[in-house]
Specification:
969 residues, Alkaline Phosphatase, subunit A, 35 helices, globular
Length: 969
């Protein structure tokens, strides 16, 4: 009965966890409520002193617009035909929120970062008011779009001609730009019978520079040639519009064309974006036109906001300012307008933005403004004073310049205050979510998720090391929870986990030294090497946020020598593949086969749990001569004869599938390194060819490359797809093998079979993780396997327990390696480059499966170390239970009890992982509520909350997998 109650408590905890996440997420990051009405000049002008009766308040200066979005620019500023700005991009600095800000004038929040991967509504009538909507529906403009398909998802049914490119295939740095550039000739061929040149607005969104940054960083050897390519495109577009404007100059009604060259976001020192570093939030914005006449080198020192593009284009092209816009006109652009026109522009924008200013109370006249309290009250009183002065000056026009300056002041103050207020949250829902999480933790405590650490053995009794395990685990929880109340510790969280990991390993090392009589020297050496491995992993990538670009890492060294980079990456991939294959042979060919054989009733040694205690001479010669991967399925010669053939076949098929899988992944990862000479695009891209990247590396490995291509004569995307198929086949074979092994007669054999099941799952997952990981991170998998095998070595059967803190250390190592892979608590490190590996836009599978694969890839590529070590905790725990039952002579335990114990073990481990992370999540939610008014709430806490929720969802998925496995076993 108690077991049923405990299970119900666990299920209730999981349900409450889901509700808690939902309420806190929607409370802290609510979907912004926007006015769905569309603006018009009439609605804006009705309160205007200057433009009440004008059809268009200010005559537009341009009739054609080209918006070119790119991440790195050169300039046309020397001739005075352009003016440039630094356009501040607010977090999150990812594409979808930035395009929203540029086109709507609003300030998107983190919900938009989450929806960056999701399809948008295809109904154009439900669109938010934007530049695109106003141009199409109010000004009857024709828009063509080529490039990032985010535009198509945000503004469906708005483009007369378009060609979208998926932005998540970041491994493509060439074709993704050619798909845009190949449309330029037809777009600028203004012959009467060419429909493709019949555009008023042309949008070009180039992705190549962004992709190079994701792949190799801003200092990549590919960056200079790509920047020259973009310069060539800008030069071509400028020349074309200059020629066309000259032809149209005879028509007095025609107006010139405007090119706006901008970046939707920047990139940090390692090529990522999404965070709040200066490099990520400071893209350029340049206005270019032959008709512009600015002083030479007009690089304005002014830093503008990206949303300022909206009202600026509104007055330059003559369409109404979109609803909900918080941008203000760029003052330098209109500096040469007449005073009256400037006054009209700033007055209309002030009237528009005043509707968005939150009001604590209504101020109807200046008499109400004697004691304004809040900043918004003061702003309202300033606006009333300004409007009063403007009405008095309508007759004499003596204070026009003063009015212009006061309107500028009001616009700047209003934009600043609204921007600070934009991220409103629902505090009651946040508190409800935190309460749900708290109650969920209480139910997990009632279940006893902590017992795996505190008690340490299946006997569920205290032992001499109870205090050691308790202190290590409780210290971990307390320190990690306290760190959530410090923004610096959130930004540099990796310091804490590496410190905790090395501290616990040091304590373990000292513990082994102090117990020399019982601890072999090999254990001391292994723990020391574990400390070395963790230290190496810490230096592999640029870690943290504050000093990310200032640290020296192996990654920097690899990419600092372009001549050798490909050779190094190829070597790392080769070494990793061979090392993991050796680990497979060790696990299946030596350790587990001997462990299980030694536990059979016919074995003369019934208590030999460790590989180091088994000598080859102790194993019967007939066993040594047999297939190394074979495992005795049942005790007794008759059952062995009946099962050996099928068992051996399944084992060989499973291993063959795995080796074919790892080979496919190896080919996929190394093919780009060996195919360098085929990237010369001169025949295709004649305008400004990207130089070929032939080097001696290709010549040296040409023979190897051709051999691989002969063995796998298919497209690389098909190799990736084949890898997915082999992965699922391998997983099915793992389950079939487990069913065969679980029929073993003794309890230790049963638990070894369970441990081997999780090892099987790990081996099947590893090639997919390699497929989706960065090439330079492949070596870290060797260190992870060393940690795994070391923890098997450190299981101590003589005391029937895990050596103190073993599971706690594995948990800390999981967190440490997560950061060692280059992950941070900034969205800039969130890797989307592998989301669509093996997928193409024309992949003929159901959309749900397509998106599920993309989501699976995203989770595996970003949380690979955590997933790896979570399965490792399962495997090591099962192995330690096998040692316990072996030493306590419980081989005659009834089968029903064996199954029940195995199921409880799997569920216990899953709930231990969930419970530990849930306690940390609760502390994060508490700190977010307490510090909700902190200056860095959106730049530091918000991305950390997103990562923590994503990890919690991954933990819940683990629980579901654990429940499914428990039913299967």
């Amino acid at each position: 009965m108690k077991k049923i109650i405990n299970l119900v408590a666990a299920l209730i905890a999981i349900v409450l966890n889901v509700f808690g996440i939902y309420y806190f997420f929607t409370g802290f990051l609510p979907q912004k409520l926007t006015v769905n009405l569309k603006s018009s000049w009439n609605s804006i002008q009705k309160n205007s002193f200057e433009t009440q009766n004008a059809r268009v308040p200010v005559n537009p200066k341009f009739d054609r617009l080209i918006i070119m979005v790119v991440d790195a620019l050169r300039n046309l500023l020397k001739e005075g035909k352009a003016i440039g700005f630094t356009a501040n991009a607010k977090v999150p600095t990812v594409t979808l929120p930035r395009i929203k800000a540029l086109m709507t004038g609003t300030i998107p929040n983190y919900i938009d970062a989450v929806t960056n991967l999701l399809e948008q509504d295809s109904d154009s009538t439900s669109q938010q008011d934007s530049i695109i909507w106003q141009l199409v529906n109010n000004s009857n403009k024709t828009i063509h779009m080529f490039g990032d398909d985010t535009w198509l998802r945000l503004f469906p049914n708005s483009f007369a001609h378009y060609e979208g490119t998926t932005s998540f295939y970041v491994s493509d740095t060439v074709q993704v730009d050619l798909n845009v550039t190949r449309n330029l000739d037809s777009a600028f061929d203004f012959s009467p019978d060419n429909e493709k040149s019949n555009w008023d607005v042309l949008i070009l969104h180039y992705l190549g520079l962004d992709h190079i940054g994701h792949l190799e960083g801003p200092k990549s050897r590919l960056m200079p040639s790509k920047q020259r390519e973009m310069d060539g495109i800008v030069e071509k577009i400028y020349t074309k519009i200059k020629e066309n404007d000259l032809k149209k100059s005879s028509n007095k009604q025609s107006k010139p064309s405007l090119l706006v060259l901008l970046g939707d976001h920047g990139m940090n020192e390692i090529g990522n974006h999404g965070g709040s570093s200066i490099g990520e939030t400071s893209p350029a914005m340049i206005f270019i036109s032959p008709s512009l006449d600015f002083p030479p080198n007009s690089q304005s020192a002014l830093t503008i906001d990206q949303t300022d593009l909206v009202p600026t284009l509104s007055f330059l092209l003559g369409f109404p300012i979109p609803q909900n816009n918080v941008g203000i006109p760029i003052f330098d652009i209109f500096s040469k307008y007449s005073e009256i026109d400037q006054l009209k522009i700033y007055e209309l924008c002030a009237l528009s933005i005043n509707n968005l200013v939150p009001k604590n109370k209504n101020y109807n006249n200046l008499d109400d403004c004697k004691n304004p309290i809040s900043e918004f009250d003061k702003l309202q009183c300033f606006f009333l004073s300004l409007r009063n002065q403007h009405s008095l000056d309508l007759i004499h026009r003596k204070a026009t310049n003063e009015l212009i300056e006061r309107y500028k002041t009001y616009l700047t103050r209003a934009q600043t205050l609204i921007s600070q207020k934009f991220g409103g949250y629902d505090l009651p829902k946040m508190c409800i979510g935190a309460i749900f999480i708290f109650i969920s933790v209480l139910f997990l405590i009632y279940y006893g998720f902590y017992k795996l650490i505190f008690l340490g053995s299946p006997s569920q009794k205290r032992d001499s090391h109870f205090l050691t395990r308790s202190l290590s685990y409780v210290s971990l929880i307390i320190l990690a929870s306290i760190s959530h109340f410090s923004t610096s510790l959130i930004e540099e969280e990796h310091f804490m986990w590496f410190y905790l990991t090395q501290t616990l390993l040091l304590f373990k090392f000292l513990f082994l030294i102090s117990s020399q009589s019982t601890s072999p020297n090999m254990d001391k050496i292994i723990v020391f090497l574990l400390m070395v491995s963790v230290r190496i992993s810490k230096s592999w990538n640029n870690l943290g946020i504050k000093w990310q670009g200032q640290t020296i890492s192996v990654r920097n060294i690899i990419y600092s020598f372009p001549i050798f980079t490909n050779w190094i990456l190829f070597s790392l991939s080769t070494i990793t593949t061979i090392s993991i294959a050796c680990a497979v042979y060790y696990i299946y060919g030596y350790k587990f086969s001997l462990l299980i054989e030694s536990d059979s009733p016919s074995s003369t040694t019934s208590k030999i749990p460790q590989t180091r205690q088994i000598k080859k001479k102790d194993v019967h010669p007939s066993n040594r001569k047999s297939q190394p991967l074979s495992v005795e399925l049942k005790s007794g010669p008759d059952s062995q004869k009946s099962q050996d053939g099928i068992s051996l076949f399944i084992q060989k098929l499973s291993r063959s599938t795995w080796f074919f899988l790892i080979f496919c992944v190896f080919v996929y990862k190394t093919e780009p390194l060996l195919n360098l000479s085929k990237l010369d695009l001169s025949p295709v891209y004649s305008m400004n060819p990207q130089p070929g990247r032939t080097n001696r590396f290709f010549e040296i490995f040409l023979v190897v490359y051709r051999t691989l291509r002969i063995m796998a004569p298919v497209k690389m995307v098909e190799v990736a797809q084949l890898s997915y198929v082999l992965f699922f086949v391998s997983m099915i074979l793992n389950l079939v093998q487990y069913k065969a092994r679980s029929k073993l007669g003794s309890v230790p054999q049963s638990f070894n079979a369970l441990s081997l099941l999780f090892i099987d799952i790990l081996f099947s997952l590893t090639p997919i993780m390699l497929l989706l990981s960065k090439p330079h991170n492949s070596f870290l998998f060797i260190l992870m396997y060393f940690v795994l095998l070391s923890n098997y070595q450190l299981v101590d059967p003589s005391k029937n327990i895990l050596i103190p803190t073993n599971i706690t250390i594995l948990f800390c190592i999981a967190k440490s390696f997560y950061f060692a892979f280059g992950n941070t608590n900034s969205l800039a490190s969130f890797d989307l480059s592998s989301a669509y590996t093996g997928l193409t836009s024309d992949f003929n599978i159901p959309k749900f499966i397509y998106n599920s694969i993309a989501l699976q890839n995203t989770i595996l590529s970003n949380f690979a170390p955590l997933i790896f070590f979570y399965f490792a905790i399962f495997a090591v725990s099962a192995s330690s239970f096998a040692s316990f039952h072996r030493d306590n002579d419980s081989s005659k335990l009834p089968t029903s009890n064996m199954s029940s114990t195995r199921r409880k073990l799997v569920i216990d481990v899953a709930l231990f992982i969930l419970g530990t992370d849930l306690v940390l999540l609760l502390s994060l939610f508490a700190s977010t509520i307490v510090l909700r008014s902190h200056l860095f709430i959106w730049s530091v806490f918000a991305p950390k909350v997103l990562y923590a929720i994503a990890l919690n969802v991954t933990d819940l998925a683990f629980c579901l997998i654990a429940f499914a496995i428990s039913l299967f076993i």
